[in-house]
């Protein structure tokens, strides 16, 4: 056995003879030994222990090796890895110092090239290992920063949406280690609610499973966040649960939509226009978004209800005071008018196109790429069914809008949307 191999085994022995939460400190104190050969030694010793029936230490060593491998998979140079880590630490420090979100977003934009899987891997390793190595008070401080980071990054309009959501999931998951439901029920429940939002919007993995996870997570949160104790938070969670039921794949579609409507109306029972105008308008928007798809009742009446709800929300979310929400409402109004039964079909389609174009004035490719792609996709649908103008020209315009959407909805990042657009392009042609 070489001297180096002997050093690896000694380090493994130190790890096994100390609490798991000290692993990161031990590894930091022996950085020169932590390399690919050491990881291989960890796996080898772990496998030997497993075969001899010593399952607990075997699992510990194998898990540690996998964590170190995951960190190595970033495939970046030591210098590049340091840049990622320094960016992450700087970002978390700004969050801890309560820097304005707009300034934090400016900082993120300046480092857009670092918003990738490498950063997610580093965040996952650092967050989970660090929280286990500090005292309970420090744990909660780090957890708060991670939750705030998750909230910021999941709402960040640029970058890779799928990876942004993954970073949020990693952040919330690590933060939960500092807040146990018995000791900190409200904090625990709020993080569960945030996790529900992230899984609802998750791009990676099975869409069906993500939505089911989201719904289950919201229900966990609602065991603590009751209407009696926390009416405002209860209303927020009900609205988010409604969105999840809107997207739900499992179960009966009509029942899922009705459940979503129930959740939105529950939210409105506590989020009144007088007390919480923005939340009230958000639920009106959600109802306006779902009513055109409602399978119960008269379809024409449902669409008229949707338009009424969306126009109510526009009284709160104006272009001047909330351009982003205003643009989302314009998109939803475009959808409603595109599917409208009452009135003149040609006029409805023209109104639909006008609303989508309004939204594009705010949701640009540079600032809101995902929303920009969604609007181009919707415009493609509107031009596909357009009555006014020459039919062949409308078809060409529809295909052009759909191809624009494909600049963002790529096959690797958004396979579901990519597939739907490819299908629509073939049908137009």
TrEMBL record:
Q: Which Gene3D superfamilies match?
A: Tetratricopeptide repeat domain (1.25.40.10)
Protein name per the record: Tetratricopeptide repeat protein
